[in-house]
Structure formats: structure tokens, C-alpha cells
């Protein structure tokens, strides 16, 4: 069984970076992936709104729409959420 330390060392070699940098990147990507998975799970269960899902996933509403389309999720957005997003862009 390969240890976490061995995985990090292998990743560092593949990326051509130090073990510390490989560890940092692995954590960042892992956190990003876990947040996205949780957002999809909660949104699919109708526990959060589209805007909340985007926030949980750490992305813009537009980015969430792309993810939702890729995952085959039905996107339901309230008009006031669109207005809020447009105001935030201005």
C-alpha cells in the first residue's frame, strides 16, 4: 500500500516541484473538489439554491451554470437572484 508521503513524492516528481509545493497543490485541488461535490450533492437534494450552490463551490453563478449543465442538473433560478448577480457585476 502506497503511503500519503509516497503519493506526495510521486506527485512532486510528476509536476517538477518540491514536495511542499506538491502537498500545497494537492490540498488546494482536494478542497476545491470536495466543495464542488458537496455543492452538487446539496443542490441535487434541493437543500440549497443555485446561488448558494455557486457560493459553496467557490465559483461564480456563470461557472456554476456550466457545471450544472455538465452534470445534467436542472437549474432553477429566481428572478431576484439574477438581479442580485447583475448588481454584483456592476
Describe the structure.
- With 90 residues, the chain is an all-alpha fold.
- The chain has one domain.
- The protein has helices at residues 4-15, 19-44, 50-57, 61-71, 79-89.
- The relative contact order is 0.09.
Layout of helices and strands:
Blueprint: H1 4-15, H2 19-44, H3 50-57, H4 61-71, H5 79-89
Helix pairs in contact: 1-2, 2-3
C-alpha end-to-end distance: 53 Å
Cα shape: elongated
Largest sheet: none
Along the chain, the helix and strand elements come as HHHHH
- Continuous helix count: 5
Structural class: mainly alpha
* Beta-strand content: under 5%
* Rg value: 17 Å
What is the mean predicted local confidence, pLDDT?
90
Annotation, overall tally of beta strands:
0
Percent helix range: over 70%
Count of individual domains: 1
Contiguous low-pLDDT stretches (5 residues minimum) are none
Primary descriptors:
90 residues, mainly alpha
Outline of this structure?
The chain is mainly α and 90 residues long. The chain is built from five helices and no strands.
